[in-house]
Amino acid sequence: MIQSLIHKLKHLVVTLRFSILFIFVTLFLVSALSIILATSIRFMDTLTFTSLALMRYSSAAVQQELNVAIRPAELESQFSAHLMEEGVLKDNEEELIPYTYYLLKNLPLALAVYWGDEHGDFIYAEKAKDGSIVTEIYTRRTLPATHIILYRNPTGQIIRSVSSDDLSFDPRRRPWYVKAKKAKRPIWTDVYLFEVLNQPGITSAAPVFNKQGQFIGAFGIDISLDYLSQFITHQKISPHGFSFIISGNENLIAYPKIKPFINTPLSPAHPVSIHRVPIPVIKKSFALYEKTSREELTIKQDGEDYLVAYEPVPDLAEYGWHIGVVIPKKDFTEALQKVNLITIIISVSVLTLCIILVSGLITRIVKPIKLLVQETDQIKHFDLDHDIPIQSRIKEVIVLRNAIQSMKKGLKSFQKYVPKILVRQLIESGEDIRAGGVRRELVVLFSDIENFTTIAEIMDPNELMTQLCDYLEDLSQIIIIEKGTIDKYIGDSIMAFWGAPLPVDMPCHQAAHAALRCQKKLDELNAQWAQQGKPALRTRIGIHKGEAVVGNLGSSERLNYTALGDTINMASRLENINKLYKTRIMVSETVYEEIKDAFVLRLVDCLAVKGKMRSSCVYELLSDSKRDIPFDVDTYRITFEKGFASYQHRQWDEAIAHFKNCLAIYPADTLAPIFIERCEHYKADPPSSDWHGISKMNT
Questions:
Q1: Each residue of 441-456: b (16+ CB within 10 Å) or e?
Q2: DSSP state of 504
Q3: Which domains does the chain have, with CATH numbers?
Q4: Any idea which GO molecular function terms this record carries (predicted)?
Q5: Residue in 285, 333, 308 with CA at minimum distance from that of residue 55
Q6: CA distance 194 to 223
Q7: In the chain, at which end, N or C, are there fewer CB atoms within 10 A of the end residue's CB?
Q8: What is the pLDDT of residues 150-170, one digit of tens each?
């Protein structure tokens, strides 16, 4: 009887609903019971482990944030010294005054930036309480010695200059200068009293040596203890946790602006010992830390557990600086205890709810599957009599797989004759795709590889096709991601457009982004190909916006979704015009007006294209951010436009001067030399009287 039962169970075929419901209920029960049991057994260990882990993370985070905050001061002082040694930054007021001002402005934690030399000269920029920056200049290398103070408003504009008779300050006697000179390397000072500001702090200083190795001066950057305290105050460790900094002589260096620290004064003359801080847990933990040298401690105070960590500050280790972090353990465990209780409640609730929901959902799932089987039987157009072996006990899966396999086999056969997308459309709609088109406003992009014919002649055909396919694949993916439609590949050229078959928001912007990304990707590909010994490919791109006819073109045997019209021809001409001006991305005036506020472009020329009644200007698309431009693009554009205006008014010498200024701004420019050559030509052979600075394009 048992064997008979086993035999029946082996050959049992169950319904899909029963199978899914049984699996889900079993999984829910096992998962929920396992979670509840494991959480209850391991909860206390988890609390301790998690608390210590979070403590380590919090302590490391504070140390990392402090390092990130003070490290720029060290790096900038060293970098400034390097600039001085390399001659990039000169030892004169004209360069040092603005340099120290802008350096201080961009260092949030710094209080002052300054330069002192062996002559006793001193250029000092300090932050005022209102956010402005005051500069003091002591000059002793020329007599009589002077002391000038420059006052600025918060925007950086100098509003007042005062000459002072106070020449008592000498940088050569200050601790930062003496130590940097003696150490002959970048240094940090211990806490000392700033003479100018009369407040305690630390200094990062870097010495400067001339070509003969002689010490000539030092750069210094001040960080006040008050700034460090502000930094510590803003470190949100936990709801009730806080951090502080102590020195090697066990004095409090920086602390959060919270009670009971708020009335603790900081002064090198009257340092506050860590043992006098009015927080018992700090005294107790630090005493234990000194005794055991354990960086992570658990302290019980007034019936509450505290997690305490002490870690050295790497940059100031020579002075014995440490970061202390104190966090009540309940800040971590309270939430975990709630989570444990909530987990149990949720597990039981979810278990009950899921069983109810899954039962209802499975009923809803099975019904559409049955309908899907019926539907696939109706839409299939191929032979379905072929038997497929199925290893399954679920009736619905057997039926569904038969139908889907039959449909896939038919589709695969049909795809040998008709494109995949067209097959999908025919099956979904049941209608033929007819020839025809509509007028749409499109943004059209043309790309073409420079000197591709020459490259093709020297390369192996297989290698050429592989490299070209990689090129087309990567650029096409970028165009598709930017919501463009690939019209066709014409050899090595790509034609794409935006605005059809579906409308696109801001199509000019999308096309511009696509063009820039294509050029950037091509630079990456060229770097890879160079390593592989393959030739680099340089592509030219033209973009134009206008009306075109778009739709299905072809015969009854084959159709192609494409666009026709003068807009397409204009985009192709723009791509071709790149050759004349040695540019990479040329856009029409229509596109320029759409994207000029969001991208960086420059005027190239005003052209009269063959077949067009009206001339228009063309522009080169450079970037989507001025930060990526290796020259002062704003100054360049102003200078070039002045030169172009003079060029159009036949003022040849004035135009040449402006274009030469363009070369001074951007020595690698290819555009300015073209116009200089034109101006020289027109000086020798003036154009006709009807010439107005418009270049005629006959292509």
A1: ebbbbbbbbbebeebe
A2: -
A3: 242-252+262-334 (3.30.450), 436-598 (3.30.70.1230)
A4: adenylate cyclase activity
A5: 308
A6: 10
A7: N
A8: 998 888 888 899 998 888 889
